[in-house]
Amino acid sequence: MLIKPSLFIIVTVLLAAIATTASAANVAGDEPTGHYADLATAVWLHGAKSCKNDINPAIQVMQADASTYVLRQNKCVTFEAPFIYVLFGKDKVLVVDTGANQSPEHSPIYQTVESLIEQQGGRINGKPEVLVVHSHSHSDHTKGDSQFHGKPGVEVVGTNTQALETQLGLGDWPTKQSSIDLGGRLLTLIPIPGHQEQSIAIYDPQTEWLLTGDSLYPGSIRVKNWSDYKNSIQRLLEFSRGKPVSLILGSHIEFNAEKNKPYKIGTRYQPHETPLGMYVDQLKVLNDKLQTTTKPKKLKFGRFVISPLSKFEKLLIKALSKSN
Fold first, then answer.
1. What DSSP letter does each residue of 92-145 carry, written as one string?
2. What is the pLDDT of residue 64?
3. Which helix (H) or strand (E) covers residue 186, if one does?
């Protein structure tokens, strides 16, 4: 069932009302008022047996701390149900990915971000500005861009290598890191091609999160360039050494904890999802295995599976990808 705008407006009004009386608010987040969500254990809305009877919001919002939100698109709107990260600083708010649906009616991501800005106190002298970046260029992470294009105070970073170099300072791709200063919140960007050519990871010292897009998450991870992926995972592990990393957070949950295997592609009801959060220990296990694997092949781990793309899949993904 596609969520009607009237339902979203009701949810937004309720969110604003709760924000007035409490320090945190979660839309359908199953978190008590006044408490922040624990992303290591949070239970997300996971679809419906019958989407025509689904009454859940188009976008689920969980608040992780005073200035950090994680959004998930409804599986009845898009089976991909990607996660979107919204990080506030004093001057800018970073939106990581825009999701798999471009319709403001069916998936109002821009309106949701604007409601969070209001919850944070609104804009003062044009601040905060909105900066939209992408974990990579696949369409299930970029389709919502159209909702942000042309809006005042919004910059949407392109997804091709030139855009990453000029707009994000990621020159000498993929060896050079760069940073984004949101105003009192300095983030590090790490190139991690492999799943897709322009994949990036983002490290946030405030939450101690390492955001990895589709390069590492609980599910079935497909790899386009095996050699690049091996190097990227090693680069991520080396980066994480000596730094506090509380959680590794990707862009999907596709793993069935009860059956200990990924859900089938296209599944819209996932009642036994594993938690979203992963850990550096799992990154290390993955890196150790990759470095001893000489040829691309399917690799199974406790909460995820890595496998190379076939030639046909590479052609299909290229057709579905978007470069700005």
1. EEEEE---S---TTT--HHHHHHHHHHHTT--BTTBSEEEEE-S--BGGGTGGG
2. 98
3. strand 186-191
Neighbours of 114 (CB within 10 A): 16
CA of residue 164 relative to chain centroid, distance: 18
Q: Which residue has the tokens 């798999």?
A: 100
Residue (of 303, 308, 309) closest to 283 by Cα position:
303
- CA gap 186, 170 in Å, rounded: 15
Q: Provide the CATH topology of domain 5-320.
A: Metallo-beta-lactamase; Chain A (3.60.15)
Tens digits of per-residue pLDDT, 14-49?
A: 343 333 333 333 333 344 345 899 999 999 999 999
154-156 and 129-133 strand pairing: parallel
Domain spans of the chain? Answer: 5-320
Residue 9: pLDDT over 60: no
Intra-chain end-to-end CA distance of the chain, in Å: 31
pTM score? 0.88
- Report CA 297 to chain centroid distance, whole Å: 26
Greatest Cα pair distance, the chain, in angstroms, is: 57
pLDDT of residue 83: 98
The backbone torsions φ and ψ at residue 70, rounded to the nearest 5 degrees and listed phi first, read: -125, 130
Burial status of residue 11 (CB atoms within 10 A of its CB: 0-12, 13-18, 19 or more): buried
pLDDT band at 229 (very low <50, low <70, confident <90, very high): very high
- Are 110 and 145 in contact by the 8 Å Cβ rule? The answer is no
CA–CA distance, 195 with 97 (Å, rounded to integer)? 16
State both tokens at 8: 């979203």
Instruction: Report the amino acid identity of residue 7.
Output: L
> H helices within 120-249, ranges in order?
161-168, 226-240
pLDDT per position as a tens digit, 188-213? 999 999 999 999 999 999 999 999 99
User: Which tokens go with 226?
Assistant: 């095996």
Q: Of 22 and 296, which is predicted with more confidence?
A: 296
Reported as a pLDDT band with limits 50, 70 and 90, residue 324 is very low
- What CA–CA distance (Å, rounded) separates 89 from 156? 17
